[in-house]
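ARCHIVE CARD
Drawer: 12
Card no.: 0347
Subject: one protein chain, sequence and derived structure
Cross-reference: see card 0346
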Amino acid sequence: MLLLRGSATRWINDEPMPGLVQIEITDADARVHRLVEKSAVVGANGVLHEGAEYPIDVEVACNPRHQAYRSGEARTVNVVDLSPWGVDDPDVLYPVERDQLSWDAPAVYSDLSICARQGVALVTFRRWREIVGLDCEELSTLEDHLWEFASVTPETFAAWYESHPLVRRGSDDPLPAEVESSAALHGLDQVELRQAVRALTVITYGGLFGRVESEWSLTGLQDLAAVTGARGVGLAPPDRFLGSLWVDGDWGHPSTELVGRWRAPGVVR
């Protein structure tokens, strides 16, 4: 999980148990945010107590929301919320520097870059197709097309962008006849199939022309899981995709070798 460095600056009260401490977070604009939290939430190792010598370094779990490039300052800040442990509301956002953030197990999908989240979805989608028996050329080439995004450059983007027919179809447009026939043959509901294809595609395409919000692709993953989970196929675990983290570039720039390892058979079993 992603962790934001902060400081416990003083003991506030013994009640409610196990006691309250004041936490200070200094953001990328040098603003100091003071929060009150239970000592055990940010100091599970027991170092935070009334008799401790403050300040004490702590780390708070956070969710990445977006990255903001500030052209006037020639720097990128990571915008996060502090909701995973309930330290603050998810709608309260903090701009922070990369060096204020670290990573520690367990891995969660929000840790991953867009390319890595797309990798999770593609591996899951392939396993789901194997389980339901959906062997269609159009879906195989769609997977290839989405895997290719990791290696797309500004020079090749235009040629890649609409090069597969399934990414150009509207949400209500029919799927290709071969796909629909194969789905019918295996008793797969057309709505279910369209939802899966839509969820798979939106992870990348949903944020191509606006600020990349973390929730877009995470929602796509959840929507895909709702379809594949009905057939006993859960999302591929995030651990295998940690080579491309959100905080090191929200879109991600995995190497061809890394993508090859993601695609290797046996990732989901």
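Annotation on reverse: The mean pLDDT is 92. Helices lie at 39-42, 114-132, 137-148, 157-161, 177-185, 190-205, 214-228, 256-263.
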